[in-house]
Amino acid sequence: MAKTLTHKWTFTSRFRRQAFGWRGSGTAVQRVKEAVTEIKAAARKDSLLGAEGAVLFFEKVSPALEQIDSSSGAIGTAVNNAVDALAPLIAEAPADVDLRRKWLERLWKAIEEDDIPYIERLPYHWGSLCQLPDLASHWADDLMTPVRITWSEERRASGGYYKGTSACFSALLAAGRYKEILELLSLAPYKFWYDRLWGMKALMAMGKKAEALRYAEDSRGLNEPDYCISEACEEILLTSGMVEEAYAKYAIEANQKTTYLATFRAIVKKYPNKDSGDILADLVASSPGNEGKWFAAAKSAGLLREAVNLANRSPCDPKTLTRASREMKDKDPYFALEAGIAALRWLIAGYGYDITGQDVLDPYRFALEAAINIGCLQDTQDRIREMVSADKSNDQFASKIIHSELDRLT
After folding, report:
1. I want to staple 175 with a disulfide (CB 3.0 to 4.6 A). Which of 108, 136, 217, 341 is the partner?
2. What's the pTM value of the predicted model, to 2 decimals?
3. 230-246: per-residue pLDDT in tens?
């Protein structure tokens, strides 16, 4: 361990207490990512060294960030991602029992002093951090009493919170003490998914998948994360071989991502035997009024006719349509033409964000290039003139630009 203890880490000097000011979120996010990269690189050469670096990072990160305005959520997300990336390095490191005990003691102290909190996700990994069932059981014994006290009749009215609740359940699970998880959860003053998920995991570990599914479903309620519960239920059914039921009941809600395209791709990846066209149709049906937002998903699946249809049914980002027109004007000019025309239609209608004159000229030009490729230039110009003449908006920003271009052709 001499090499580990004397290693000079770059990130430590950047994570001094209160190292980042109120407006330092952007810099802090970058520094967190750099620290993770440095630690993972070290772990590839020496797993004990990487684990030591991860422990040190968790000790330093919260004090360094405590002055930051975290309201945007960016720094919280970055630290959560760091926890998920670095906790396995500690869990998998070939440390002896004494060293692992010391790591756990240091990590627990960091959790107790995490007032913002930033590393509140770390306790969820506690069972894997213990690695050894006996060590996990020891921690479970220490943590159970505070959980019981927090959930006791005397404390229920005050709505007490204990930082070690998730760590306790994680340790109990790692120790194989499944019945005790369910017994402890029976004392909870209210249903809270992030506690009850351990009950679901315990039932799964006991081979009681049907009960686990019912337990998860029974966790739904006001302010509970339905998408997380659906994701857990979906996984239960998938691991049980009940693919069709998993898809029908949970696929759409369980796989919501930050974009429509990402949602589509997530479901396609999870259900490879399901026709992508059917998946798209189900997604479109699940979000009436937002058909146009599935344009990119349809295009990525090669469903070009359906993509055009969707782009014309409800507003679609003109820039997305323009990119599609540019990419396909030589490969599939029919599709490129309709995508360009749709982009102009929504621009004329006032849709789009931070639209410039070039954003109007581009789809116009790509549509005409596609029209030339398929020999329908005059018809296309007439269609565009008709759209422009029908524009009754006040500023007519896009129409004026297009009208000017059309005039040059006469």
Report:
1. 136
2. 0.87
3. 999 999 999 999 999 99
